[in-house]
């Protein structure tokens, strides 16, 4: 296998710990004694190919992940954590997606993430606003007005966004920096406005070249750690640019005569959640806290959609994979570089095999070329 028993055993133990599985539980799944698992992890016993396959299945990993090094950014993060502590679910998903994306980048020469020059980390709120303006320019979005189609726009600058429902107890989002480009994982279980805010936040990490970042509850508290608070400010400024919001807020509050209707219109047009809009209005001095609290508690209903003719969008609805990435996987499948089963892995089991294109049947004379 190209790896000694001690190194392989150590990786099995690390993977088991990250999965939160005990030696006894893993032994039951593999069909061996707990003492055998202990010996494997300490390097005192070799693991057979069958046992390694069962171990991989039990820990929901691919066999080669035990044999190949994990992405550097993920290793760095794990080294900073308590040894043996279980990883959040988003960590496991980040590793899987990063490995799959790196595989596709190695084997498909037509998918080429854009190389973006790293920006300086902002140190002030004004700096975060400036970075948001820079990002809008990079995304080819006007400095005013809504930023729709955010997933496609960030993919075009090298950040591949994946939206998957990771559950209410998981983090909001994470970003992994690759040698070229990056990967963003958004918890698709969030509502659409929060999904967009999460992706905007991850774009900030990407632009300043953070190796790996996991964000649990984006913009949830005013007392957030300073660095993350600046990324929150960046995300709000990206989705709700100051000059534009000032203009439409004045326009709608004057025309509609009440803050609720104005908030419903603007949140729909800019595709943000009410909490994000309320926070942005406060930081721009456009609303007092009592008004902002009422906006935060506002829920857009069916009557609003009909009477105000609102835009109903569902960006990043899970499961959502980058279109360019999906095309690359299909190219690999059509060229028979990968099997249907491997294509399902690369597509994160969001497709079924019957969705794949039908490959041409080879004639007998063609088959002999491969023997």
UniProtKB/TrEMBL annotation:
Give the matching InterPro entries.
Cro/C1-type_HTH, IrrE_HExxH, Lambda_DNA-bd_dom_sf, Rad_response_metalloprotease
Q: Which organism is it from?
A: Saccharopolyspora gloriosae
User: Which family is annotated?
Assistant: Belongs to the short-chain fatty acyl-CoA assimilation regulator (ScfR) family.
HTH cro/C1-type domain: which residues? 12-66
One matching Pfam family: Peptidase_M78
User: What PANTHER family does the database record attribute to this sequence?
Assistant: ANTITOXIN HIGA1, BLL7220 PROTEIN
The protein depicted here goes by the name: Zn-dependent peptidase ImmA (M78 family)/transcriptional regulator with XRE-family HTH domain
Q: Drop me one GO molecular function for this one.
A: DNA binding
